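Form 12-C: Joint structure prediction
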Amino acid sequence: MTTLLTVIVVVLAVVALVQIVRIFEIANVLNKKDEEPKDGVGQPSYKENDIFGKVMLFLGVALVVFSIWSAFKWGAYILPQSASEHGVETDRLLWITMAVIGLVYLITQPLLFWFAYKFRGTKGKKASYMEHNNKLELLWTGVPTIVLAIIITYGIITWGNIMNPEFDEEPIVVELYAKQFGWTARLAGEDNVLGNANVRFIGGTNSLGIDENDFNGLDDIVVNELHLPVGKPVLFKMRSQDVIHSAYIPHFRLQMNCVPGEVTQFAFTPRKTTEEMRRDPKVIRQINQINNIRENIGEDPYDFDYVLLCNKICGAAHYNMQLKIVVETEEEYKQWLKEQTTFAESL
Amino acid sequence: MAAETHSHDHHEETFITKYIFSQDHKMIGKQFLITGMIMGIIGVMMSILFRLQLAWPDKSFPILDTFLGKWSDNGVMDPNIYLALVTIHGTIMVFFVLTAGLSGTFSNLLIPLQIGARDMASGFINMLSYWFFFASSLIMVLSLFVPDGPAAAGWTIYPPLSALPQAMPGSGMGMTLWLISMTLFIASSLLGALNYIVTVLNLRTKGMSMTRLPLTIWAFFVTAILGVLSFPVLFSASLLLLFDRSFGTSFYLSDIMVGGEVLGYTGGSPILFEHLFWFLGHPEVYIILLPALGITSEVIATNSRKPIFGYRAMVGSILMIAFLSFIVWGHHMFVTGMNPFLGTVFTFTTLLIAIPSAVKAFNYLTTLWKGNLQLTPAMLFSIGLVSTFITGGLTGIILGDSALDINVHDTYFVVAHFHIVMGLSAIFGLFAGVYHWFPKMFGRMLSRPLGYVHFVMTFIAAYGVFYPMHFLGLAGLPRRYYTNTSLPMFDNLADINVIISVFAIIGGLAQLVFIFNFFYSAFRGPRAPQNPWRSNTLEWTTPVEHIHGNWPGEIPEVHRWAYDYSKPGADEDYVPQIVPISEKEEATGH
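Section 2 - Result
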C-alpha cells in the first residue's frame, strides 16, 4: 500500500513538473514569433533578475540570521571550559581564531549577497570595465598574510607547549590500551616505569601482553576504570592490539591515535576533579538539559563523568568504546591505588 | 595538425562509434557526466539512508529493509553496513562524482572547444579514459552486492582495519573489489590528465597564448598536473596494501592480534600508509575544487558582464594553491603520533593556503561589484560556491592549526568543514557548469524556472545540513559513530541530528527537480542559439549541432583574452575572442 502510494505521488510529481515546464514553453512560444532562437536567449529577463536579486538578498540575510541564532541556541552544547591545563590555552587560541574568522564571515557573506542584489541586471545598465587593481590585490594579499602570521605563530607556540611540556615533577605514566572494542588502562606502579609488552605475550589473565620477565612490569596495575589525581602531570602512552584506534577525551582537549606496532604518547595535567566539574555552571546546565531529554524517553538520569572515547574508525562497535576516568584529590587517588592489584599479584 | 586532417575524412558513424565507443571529446564529456550523475544518485541515496539512522536510531524504517536486505533487521540497520555506507558514500562522491564527474566532464567538453582544437590530442586514449572509468564504476557498484558487504573501513581505508578481513566483514571481498576499482580509476584519471596537459600545451589555436586562456582551462590544466603527480602515489599505496592483504608482506602491519589470534606481521607501520594516502589525498581536494573554481570564474565573469577581476592574480593563486597542496598533507595526521616537529611544519604550510584562497574570494567579490548581473541558475550556483568556499575555507584555519586540531580532529567539525569547502563548493561548481554548458552539450536549453527552484532548495538544504555539524563537533561528537545513544553526554544533540536529516532529505528531493530538468530538456527543451549567454569564449562560435572536428571550416584565430565584457568603445557588452582589436580600443595587455 505504501509502495503504491509512493509510486502515485512520484508519478503525480513528475506530471506536475511536466505541466509546469509546458506552461513556460507555451508562454515562450507565444512571446516569440520567429523560429530561430536568438543569441542571449539564456539571459534572464529584467523581471527575473529583479526577483532573484531579491531572493539572493533574502538568502544572505537568512544565512546571517541563522548563523547568529544557532550560535546562541547551539552554543550551549559546546564543551565546557577545558579540564586540563594545556586545554585552557587551546580554548583561548580557539576562541581568538573563531573571533577572527567570525568577523571575516560576517563581512564577506553579507557583501556577497548584497552585491548579488545591488548589482542585479537592470535595463540600460552597463557594467564597469575593471580588469585589475594592483593596490587592491596587494591589500587582500597583505592583510590575510599579516593576520595569518599572528595565528600561525600563536598556534605553533601552543602546539610546541602541548607536545613538549615542561612539568615541575615527573609525570605519572599510564598506558591506554585499545582493542576491538574496549579500553584498558595500565598504571606504571611504584617505579613509574611500564613493563615491556607485546601482543605475543597475551594469554591467560595477561590480557595486555605484559612481559612476565620484565621486572618493571611486575608492579604495573591494570584497570578498567582509571583514577587520576588532580593537578599532577600525567603521561599517557597509547598502544593498540589490532587496528588503529584513537584515544579521545573531549573534556581534556586530548587526542592521540593508538597505532598497532607503535607506542604514541600525550602528556597533560587535569585541573578539575570530577566533583568540581559536576559543580561547574555550564556542566550543570548541560546535564539538566540531558536529563530532561532522558526523562522523556524513560532513561535513568545521568551525571557528569570524564570519558575516554575511540575517535578512529575501528569496526562495528567503534561507537561504543568507553573508559570512565575519575579525577579526584591526591588522598582519594592514593586510597584507590591501594585497593588495586598489581600485575605480579594477578599472575 | 593530425587532428585537423583527421576531421576532414568523413566516415560513416555507426551507433556504436557515435554513442558508445566514441572518440569525440564532446560525447566523452557527456558520458562522464551521465555516469557521474548515476554514481551521484547512488552516493546521495546512501547518505539519506545513514542520516535516517543518525537522526532516529531507535525507529524502524521499512525502507531500510528494502534497500539493505539482510543488513537491516526490521527496519534498523546493522552497524557494519552503516560503516559501509559512509565509506562508499565518501568514495563515490570524492572520486566518482567530484573527480571524474566534474573534471572528466568539463575538461573533456571544454578544453578543445575553448582553446580552439579539433579534438583532444589523442581521441583513442580519451576513449580509454572513459571506459576505464566505466569499468571502475561498475566494479564499485558490484562490490555493494558481495556476501560480506562492500568496503567499510572509511574512504581513507587505513590499514590494519582495511587489511584484515578478521577486523571487519567489509575488509574481505568488498575491500578487494574497492582496490581493483580504484586501480582502474587511477588508470582512467592518468590517461585523461595526460591528454588534457598535452592538448592544452600543444593544440591551442593561433593567437591563444597561455595568458589568453579562459580561467576554466587554467584550472583544468593545473588540475591535470596535480592528478598526474599524485594519483600514482595512491596507486603504490594500494599496491602495497594488496601485498599485505594477499601475500603476507608487512609494509603497514606489525604486532597484531585480532580475533584471538596473533598474526605474523612485524616491522610495518600504518603511518606509512597514511603518508602515502594523504600525499594523494590532499592534492585530491584541489583536484576536486580547482575545476569548480575555474567554472565559477567563467560563469561569474560572463554573467556579471565584466572582466574577471585580477586575471593574473587568479592564475597565480591557482598555481600557488596547487604548489602548496603538495606540502600540506600532514595536517591530516597531526594526532597520529608522528614527530611533533612535523606538526609545526605542516601547520605553517597549511595555513599559507588561506592567502591564495582569500585572493580568489576577494577577486570574485570584486568581479560582482558594479556588474550588470545576469542571475541565471548557473550564476546563482556560482555565487553559492563563493559563499560555501568562504564558509568552509574559514573553518580550515581552525583545522589546519595543529594545536586546535587535537580537539576537533575526526569530529563532526571536520565533517562540516570538508563537506562545505570541498563537497558543496565542487557540487555547486558542477551544477553551475551543467546549467551554463548544457546548451553546448545538447543543443537545447534547460528550463530556467526549474533551475531556480533547484538552486534555492539546494542552497537552503546545503547550509541546513552542514552548518549545524560545526556545533556537534565542538560538543566533542566523533564522526563515523553508528549512534551516540550509548553515550549520555551527547543526548542533547539529538535535535541537531534530526534537523540535519530533515534538510538532507529536502536536499535529496531537490535533486529530483534537477534530474527531471536535465533529461526532459535534453530531449524536449527549447532549441539553443549559438551563443545563449552572449559569451566571449570560443566554444560559442561552434555550430549548435555537434560536428566532428568542432568548426566546419578553419579554426578561428584568437585576437584577445576571454574577458572583454562591457569594454568601453565596443557596441555590445561582449566582444568574442575571435574579434580583432579595433583601432579605437585601448590596448589592455592581453
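Section 3 - Comments
The two ends of chain A are 64 Å apart (CA to CA). Residues 85-118 of chain A form the longest helix (34 residues).
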